[in-house]
């Protein structure tokens, strides 16, 4: 495996030069930048427009991995570029510090979650500073700091006051290993995303945010400058369906007086084909309508379903099960008696928790009916149907049949007509349904923001007064998972006084989902020291929304969707301007191990950033990650690749610190200036388009041009100086330390990072054309214009495209070609 010391220097002419020592250079400049507050961002800079760049704050796991660097180094380059473009750029950083891993560490290693988290923050802060990014550390946030989660609790109270936070008994995803509930988004293929344990269903009192109230707004994401695949993922998760609600009369009213079952369908044109009804096992009517003779079978089935996750129940590959309740309802459109079944493929959390089954036109209903001998009634005619029984479900649209007054209508018209008829009769009407569920925020864990709610026997549920925030986590708590929050075991925390009646009260012992903390952290960066509000309206308007956000697409239906909901609620509360939190979002790819597989300790393919930075320097590691491949794709980590980047930075060092003899030279001046301005144009376009790999390639090419003149021993003084200047300015966003060091050496100025981004001369970005004489057998037959660096093949192709020259060549065989670059093309024929 190729390795090369990071201080190695190569000189084409063999001259001795001072070696490039990234460790010393980077440490010196990081200390200088910190001492000078170079990256502190004023809230308002006269004559400059504010621009907010943000990369997702890291979870406090204790170590930055390569993925963190791949997300943050290009983000830093982008922020630096816009700062040089004249914007007042805010580029903050902080720590997502609550969550299960801290508690798991407490259980495993006997260290308190707070101590574990704070130690990790200290370590990660040092790693982030070693990156050399222009983070404004004055704006640092820590979501586990009471000064921060005071405002997380304040947000909860604002949502509670507006009926956007509520508590209800509901089926919850329960991880028996983590001993906590999980949001739907945290269940992957039926398993806990944290520990991969199979998730169960439990009925529990849970706190929710009414995110579905914003479903239509959340669905409207076309105007966002986000990757299309992320917007599609959100739209699919929200899952808007247009259809109709219809009611079926219970043959015998339920014990509580309920006399109907309501269903939602996207195909009201098939209502006449209903041959059975299916209730979710959790539907409240199951217990009430089940007949005595079916009670044992239904109870056993419901108990069995409690061990199957919602994800499994929704699988199209899973065999559909069910049991008959013994009860019937009436299809009001046909007057027919419809048996009521219980089936686990129906979910209480979607629609009404009941479905009408039309086996002729739904494949899963067809299979269910075939196995149980239930009737199949076709009400939509397949093409060229002869009226014979169907052998499989016909699921497409068609002409309505066996549908009474609606016979002959095409499906689209039939959907409208049936829906209107339902509304006229008072049996239902049009409805829009969403797949999106309200956001479950309750967690039965310790290391999270306490929910600011009290329970009083006299006053009921009481919100904690704002002047009593924060409700702080106690330090002395038992962390072993018991199925209830560890806070419930702390009498000092639980027992308190009701602020309304001064009587005894008990605190809510669940904590908030950690996504709550990350749904608003970007607002706090704008005003991190405010003790009166999470962010002042003035500074919210100065900085929000975020101009450029970067992160992974795995956050599409969790963090990004939650943050959009939260921002819209904050807008309605009057805290923030606009409708969306992030104007632009970029989804970076993933760095794989050298073997092309996802990095994993078990595979032994993890690349530790600290070791790479120690060996090669931060600039080299940053530049390599940008050069590795397109930022939105990533790729495998290649050790040989970083060797090449190290050699390039050594060449940069050498050409700047040890130039050739400089004098007036028109030929070299033209080539150098064209190369410099072409490179500047490419780098400018590439940074703005986030094509960092081609940006680095362009800088390498310009370095090679300088190296060529250095090896030749001479170059034009003014052009050399201009080219070096443009190289260093173009290099500054991606490799800030070496650019700073060399800029000071060649200009005597500090700092390269406050210099304006240079403007390229348009005329110099176009290829230089030269006129070449074209001869056929030694006689001039014309002239062509080609790029100055055109080779023989390119010049010949242009010549043979000229009609006059083509005519001279017709009927002849080319014997040989004589080409003098930039001057002559002689085609010898016979």
What is the C-alpha radius of gyration, as a whole number of Å? 35 Å
Shape-level CATH architecture of the largest domain: Alpha-Beta Complex
Count of discrete alpha- or pi-helical segments spanning 4 or more residues: 27
Question: Separation of termini?
Answer: 54 Å
Mean pLDDT rating: 92
List segments where confidence is low: pLDDT < 50 over at least 5 consecutive residues. Answer: 1-15
User: How would you describe the oligomerization state of the chains in this entry?
Assistant: single chain
Global geometry: globular
* SS elements, strand count: 33
CATH topology of the largest domain: Isoleucyl-tRNA Synthetase, domain 2
Q: What is the CATH H-level superfamily of the largest domain?
A: Valyl/Leucyl/Isoleucyl-tRNA synthetase, editing domain
Q: Domain count, please report it.
A: 4
Work out the strand percent.
Answer: 15-25%
Helix and strand composition category: alpha+beta
Helix content: 25-40%
CATH structural class of the largest domain:
Alpha Beta
Describe this structure in words.
The chain folds into four domains: 41-151 and 515-592, HUPs (Rossmann fold, 3-Layer(aba) Sandwich); 240-434, Valyl/Leucyl/Isoleucyl-tRNA synthetase, editing domain (Isoleucyl-tRNA Synthetase, domain 2, Alpha-Beta Complex), CATH 3.90.740.10; 605-764, Isoleucyl-tRNA Synthetase, Domain 1; 767-829, Ubiquitin-like (UB roll), CATH 3.10.20.590. It has 27 helices and 33 strands. A hairpin with a 2-residue loop joins strand 30 and strand 31 (779-787). Helix 2 crosses helix 19 (618-627), helix 20 (639-657) packs across helix 22 and helix 20 runs parallel beside helix 24. The longest helix is centred in the last third of the chain and has 23 residues, at 666-688. The radius of gyration is 35 Å and the shape is globular. Mean pLDDT is 92; it is low at 1-15.
């Amino acid at each position: 495996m190729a390795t090369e010391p990071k201080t190695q220097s190569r000189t084409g002419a063999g001259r001795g030069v001072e070696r490039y020592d990234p460790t010393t250079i980077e440490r010196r400049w990081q200390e200088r930048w910190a001492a000078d507050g170079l990256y502190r961002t004023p809230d308002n800079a006269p004559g400059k427009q504010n621009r907010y760049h943000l990369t997702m704050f890291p979870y406090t796991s204790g170590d930055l991995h390569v993925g963190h660097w791949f997300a943050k180094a290009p983000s830093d380059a982008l922020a630096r570029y816009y700062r040089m473009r004249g914007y007042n750029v805010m580029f903050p950083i902080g720590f997502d510090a609550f969550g299960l891993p801290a508690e798991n560490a407490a259980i495993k290693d006997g260290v308190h979650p707070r101590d574990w988290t704070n130690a990790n923050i200290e370590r990660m802060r040092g790693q982030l500073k070693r990156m050399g990014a222009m983070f404004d550390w004055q704006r640092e946030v820590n979501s586990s700091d009471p000064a921060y989660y005071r405002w997380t609790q304040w947000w909860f109270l604002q949502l509670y006051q507006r009926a956007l936070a509520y508590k209800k008994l509901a089926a919850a995803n329960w991880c028996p290993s983590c001993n906590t509930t999980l949001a739907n988004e945290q269940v992957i293929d039926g398993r806990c995303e944290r520990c991969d344990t199979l998730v169960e269903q439990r009925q529990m009192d849970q706190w929710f945010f009414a995110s579905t109230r914003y479903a239509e707004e959340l669905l409207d994401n076309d105007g966002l400058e986000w990757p299309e695949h992320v917007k599609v993922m959100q739209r699919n998760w929200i899952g808007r369906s247009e259809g109709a609600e219809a009611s079926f009369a219970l043959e015998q009213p339920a014990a509580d007086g309920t006399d109907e079952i309501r269903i939602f369908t996207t195909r009201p044109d098939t209502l006449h084909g209903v041959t059975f009804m299916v209730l979710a096992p959790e539907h409240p009517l199951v217990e009430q309508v089940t007949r005595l003779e079916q009670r044992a079978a239904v109870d056993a089935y419901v108990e069995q379903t409690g061990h199957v996750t919602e994800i499994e129940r929704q699988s199209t590959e899973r065999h559909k099960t069910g049991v008959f309740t013994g009860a019937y309802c009436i299809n009001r459109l046909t007057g027919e008696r419809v048996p009521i079944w219980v089936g686990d493929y129906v979910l209480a959390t979607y629609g009404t928790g009941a479905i009408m089954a039309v086996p002729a036109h739904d494949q899963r209903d067809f299979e269910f009916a075939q196995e149980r001998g239930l009737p199949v009634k076709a009400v939509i005619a397949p093409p060229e149907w002869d009226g014979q029984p169907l052998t499989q479900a016909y699921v497409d649209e068609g002409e309505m049949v066996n549908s009474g007054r609606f016979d002959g209508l095409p499906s689209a018209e039939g959907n409208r007509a049936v829906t209107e008829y339902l509304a006229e009769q008072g049996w239902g009407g049009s409805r829009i349904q969403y797949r999106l569920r309200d956001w479950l925020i309750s967690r039965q864990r310790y290391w999270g923001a306490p929910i600011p709610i009290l329970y009083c026997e006299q006053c009921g549920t009481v919100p904690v007064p704002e002047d009593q925030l924060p409700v702080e986590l106690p330090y002395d708590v038992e962390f072993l998972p018991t199925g209830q929050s560890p806070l419930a075991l702390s009498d000092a925390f639980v027992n308190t006084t009701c602020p309304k009646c001064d009587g005894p009260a008990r605190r809510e012992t669940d904590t908030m989902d950690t996504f709550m903390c990350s749904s608003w952290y970007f607002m706090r960066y704008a005003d991190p020291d405010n003790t009166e509000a999470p962010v002042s309206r003035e500074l919210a308007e100065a900085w929000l929304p975020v101009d450029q956000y970067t992160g992974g697409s795995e956050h599409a239906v969790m963090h990004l969707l939650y943050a959009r909901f939260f921002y819209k609620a904050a807008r309605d509360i009057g805290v923030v301007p606009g409708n969306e939190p992030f104007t632009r979002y970029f989804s970076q790819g993933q760095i794989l191990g050298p073997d092309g597989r996802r990095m994993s300790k078990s595979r032994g393919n993890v690349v530790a950033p600290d070791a790479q930075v120690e060996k090669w320097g931060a600039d080299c590691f940053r530049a390599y990650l940008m050069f590795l491949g397109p930022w939105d794709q990533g790729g495998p980590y290649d050790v040989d690749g970083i060797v090449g980047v190290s050699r390039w930075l050594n060449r940069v060092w050498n050409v700047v610190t040890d130039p050739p003899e400089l004098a007036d030279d028109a030929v070299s001046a033209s080539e150098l200036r064209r190369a410099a301005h072409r490179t500047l144009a490419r780098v400018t376009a590439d940074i703005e388009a986030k094509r960092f790999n081609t940006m680095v390639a362009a800088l390498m090419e310009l370095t090679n041009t300088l190296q060529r003149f250095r090896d030749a021993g001479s170059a034009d003084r003014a052009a050399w100086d201009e080219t070096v200047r443009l190289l260093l300015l173009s290099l500054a966003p991606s490799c800030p330390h070496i650019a700073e060091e060399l800029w000071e050496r060649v200009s005597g100025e500090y700092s390269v990072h406050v210099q304006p981004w240079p403007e390229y001369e348009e005329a110099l970005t176009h290829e230089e054309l030269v006129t070449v004489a074209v001869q056929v057998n030694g006689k001039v037959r014309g002239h062509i214009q080609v790029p100055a660096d055109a080779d023989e093949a390119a010049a010949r192709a242009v010549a043979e495209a000229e009609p006059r020259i083509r005519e001279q060549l017709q009927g002849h065989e080319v014997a040989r070609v004589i080409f003098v670059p930039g001057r002559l093309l002689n085609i010898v024929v016979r």
